[in-house]
Amino acid sequence: MRVKTVGKLLCAVSVVAMFTQTVAAETVLKLGTVGRLGMPIGDAIDQALIPTLEKVSGGKMTVEPHYRGSLCGEQTCGEQANQGLLQLWTSSTANFGNFGTSLSIFDLPYIFKSIEDADRISSEWLAKKQCDIAAEEAGHVCLTVYSSGGFRQLGNALRPVHVPSDMEGIKWRVTKSPIEYTLIKNWGAVPVPYDWTALYQGLQTGVVSGQYVATPWQHIAKLHEVSKYYTEIGGSWSGNQLSMDKRQYDALSDEEREWLHAAAQAFGERVQELDRQWVEDGNAAIKASVTEWYSPNDEELALWREGAIDAWINAKGTFDPETATRVLEEQGMTDFIAQLKQAGAL
How far is it, in rounded angstroms, from Cα 146 to Cα 106? Predict the structure, then answer.
């Protein structure tokens, strides 16, 4: 009896030891994001990034997600990655600018005509080209670039806006982005830096009367309850990125990097699908409740693009003119290219 008992104990100890070794052998990548489940970024992490990485690695590499900014905000997530406190992080391409200008091209107004063009060009070559630059310039390996809400659209509480001159004199909420400030000013409105969390109340009280935000976000914040006039001008694409700290990335084996890139690709494809539906749902909900949703014709859109040229001029030095020209050419935007070149922006 004692021999059998000892044998059972030895077997149990062996199993525990094997299990401990297996757990210790796993590479756990801690991910910080302001995204959450129920939104495209969070759902794509849950539905694609995590299961794909577990599958291709046979469970040897896993992702530990921390949603809703529970670990850090967008900029601070990048800083914590540099400090080795986490490995993966997401942010807007604009906030990636705190670490370098390699992704600034995605923030240029009217660099893309549509969500489809943005997804296609980013996936085919632009994201890899710019992410390769980011790896050397920013200390972060950008794994994929994707949309979070499509394009920003104009909403205001005062009157219909069809062309830029219709915005004259309206106090328009802006972020700290120099590009956004220049856009709103050139379109005739009065740019007012204003906190996102107070925007609904600001629109109610008239402190500001307009906003330039991607429609799904406007829908979530219920801004359409106080802003009844919308204009579908597009322009600024809501680009986001998923990155890993370069020093930690370089410490991975070749096989581990292959696993990570496969998971990132699956994440990028899934977030594109979810985001397009999110945009459609947000647009439909806003259209059903506002006084006017206006889509400018080609001549009117040319006026909106004309107002964006100064933003391109101000951004010179943060993007490669040849790369930007190629992006525009692939979308047949020859007239805009001519305008930018004439103004000295390209």
Answer: 10
